[in-house]
Write a structure and sequence with these properties.
312 residues; mainly alpha; 2 domains; globular
Length: 312
């Protein structure tokens, strides 16, 4: 058993090195099949030397994982084809109330935007990018280390994904960059800069910026409410909250959702109301599954407890 554990750990280290190398030279895989191939590779390596029963369970887990993501991609892609009216002014008007009559994105860009890339925009670009890597990486890590925790993670994760898609169907929403663009007939704000990739160019990693720009071409532009970027930033903090023993580090992680929110508004990707909706969706998912698991096992789990009682 120890021999196989050594083989698995060595294989996972080699896998991580290969991923970092691929990221440096090719950028992050964004095509869903490429992402699933990397995830599948981690599952296979993490299961080396285990029993046939566990091998079959791994295949089931991987098939479920693939179906979840493919279903999400398909449903998100058709979410704007059901004919529900596009929300253009309502999100902006709610934000103006929250910001005492100011356009929130315009206000933030007036304060922070510069023609040359400021240092904090590099941080914003990195934080924005984590959405495409960290939630999936965390799920792989949990599956390798503790499948029971992976199941808890995926329950909450899938709930956020598919409730989010339902909102995209019923409430297709124009994001700030779209309502500020003269390329659309409903321009209601002054021009805003959408510079999500600029920070990566400053770091000399143009491949990452190119992938971000390419991703915009196939993404549903009206899938804005709720913000899944904001949702999963909070999701990660809540799920791992009680697994961090150092209280200072634990509370430092609470800055991550706030920094993601600022980044999304600075880049004109979302209104504050989109972000708040994403956070409420995550808290609702944690509450639901916490209660379900408590009824089933007679115990409550740490992350869901935090979702209900911060600081618990």
């Amino acid at each position: 058993m120890r021999g196989w554990a050594l083989v698995r750990n060595t294989g996972l280290l080699a896998y991580a090195i290969a991923f970092v190398w691929s990221f440096a030279y090719n950028g992050l895989p964004v095509a869903r099949l490429a992402v699933l191939a990397w995830v599948g590779g981690a599952f296979v390596v993490g299961n080396i030397g285990k029993s046939w029963r566990l091998q079959i369970r791994m295949v089931r887990d991987l098939v479920f994982y693939a179906l979840m993501w493919m279903s999400y991609d398909y449903s998100r892609g058709i979410a704007d084809t059901f004919g529900f009216p596009l929300q253009v002014e309502a999100p902006r008007n709610i934000d103006k109330v929250l910001f005492f009559g100011h356009d929130s994105n315009q206000l933030i860009q007036d304060l922070l935007y510069r023609r040359s890339t400021p240092w904090y925009e590099v941080i914003f670009s990195i934080v924005y990018f984590t959405h495409f890597l960290v939630p999936v990486a965390a799920s792989v890590y949990l599956w390798v280390r503790n499948r029971d925790e992976w199941i808890r993670y995926i329950r909450r994760f899938a709930t956020v994904l598919f409730v989010g898609v339902a909102c995209f169907v019923v409430l297709p929403t124009a994001p700030p960059w779209m309502t500020a663009s003269d390329r659309h007939p409903y321009q209601i704000m002054e021009q805003l800069s959408r510079t999500t990739a600029r920070g990566w160019s400053e770091l000399g990693l143009d491949t990452v910026g190119v992938l971000l720009i390419r991703g915009r071409e196939w993404a549903n532009p009206t899938a804005a409410l709720p913000s899944l970027h904001a949702a999963f930033a909070l999701f990660l903090v809540l799920f791992f909250w009680n697994k961090i023993s150092d209280r200072r580090i634990r509370w430092a992680t609470a800055l991550f959702p706030a920094l993601m929110a600022l980044s999304l508004m600075y880049f004109a990707e979302h209104y504050l109301v989109d972000i708040l909706a994403g956070w409420l969706l995550v808290i609702g998912s944690f509450r639901f599954w916490n209660r379900w698991e408590k009824r089933r096992t007679g115990t409550s789990d740490g992350p869901a407890e935090f979702a209900v009682r911060p600081g618990g």
